[in-house]
Amino acid sequence: MTVSVEGEKVMLVPYMRDHVPKYHLWMQNYSLLQATGSEPLTLDEEYHMQLSWTQDPLKHTFIVLDKDLIVGDFLHGDPHVEAMVGDVNIYMNDLDDSRIAEIEIMIAEQNSRRKGLAKETVLLMMAFAVKNFGIYKFRAKIKESNEASRSLFQKLGFAQTSYSEIFNEVSFFFQFYTSSDPLDYLQLLLARLTKSYMGRKV
């Protein structure tokens, strides 16, 4: 599925090969590795990882573009590397419940933090997952030291469910109930409708 999702402040675009060098540069940062619980990869390994994301039906990732940084007009299929500030992912690999997804968010560029981009990105990704995959429950696993991310998910209505001393990780959970329309709820939080642009395979 090749879709770009637009919000007020961000544009979510498919993770393309052209994004890999900048993404790889981010992931050489020790603080980001610690915050995301990631292991450093070589550039070649990062290219293989990007390809695997495009081929795995149980995962979906978007690169987050800061709309203030896009040069010229936005074009679906153009990587707009100049505006890359982070990524957002969902994993749909719960064997017992196909309507649950784990969600992750990273705003890697410091100058694009504290602008509300992460909040909007998470809500857009949740709306995308509900609409396209029928997801009604979300999990988030966050390093205990990542106070900003923990605060973000709590503000969005996620409840803390557990803590792993082994991984120093806090788990959060969010569930929509059948009596309410999840997209209406998310749109209220976003205070605007989302727009999607279907395009060619990239």
TrEMBL record:
<dbReference type="GO" id="GO:0008080">
    <property type="term" value="F:N-acetyltransferase activity"/>
</dbReference>
<dbReference type="InterPro" id="IPR000182">
    <property type="entry name" value="GNAT_dom"/>
</dbReference>
<protein>
    <recommendedName>
        <fullName>N-acetyltransferase domain-containing protein</fullName>
    </recommendedName>
</protein>
<keyword id="KW-0012">Acyltransferase</keyword>
<keyword id="KW-0808">Transferase</keyword>
<dbReference type="Pfam" id="PF13302">
    <property type="entry name" value="Acetyltransf_3"/>
</dbReference>
<comment type="similarity">
    <text>Belongs to the acetyltransferase family. GNAT subfamily.</text>
</comment>
<dbReference type="InterPro" id="IPR039135">
    <property type="entry name" value="NAT9-like"/>
</dbReference>
<feature type="domain" description="N-acetyltransferase">
    <location>
        <begin position="10"/>
        <end position="158"/>
    </location>
</feature>
<dbReference type="InterPro" id="IPR016181">
    <property type="entry name" value="Acyl_CoA_acyltransferase"/>
</dbReference>
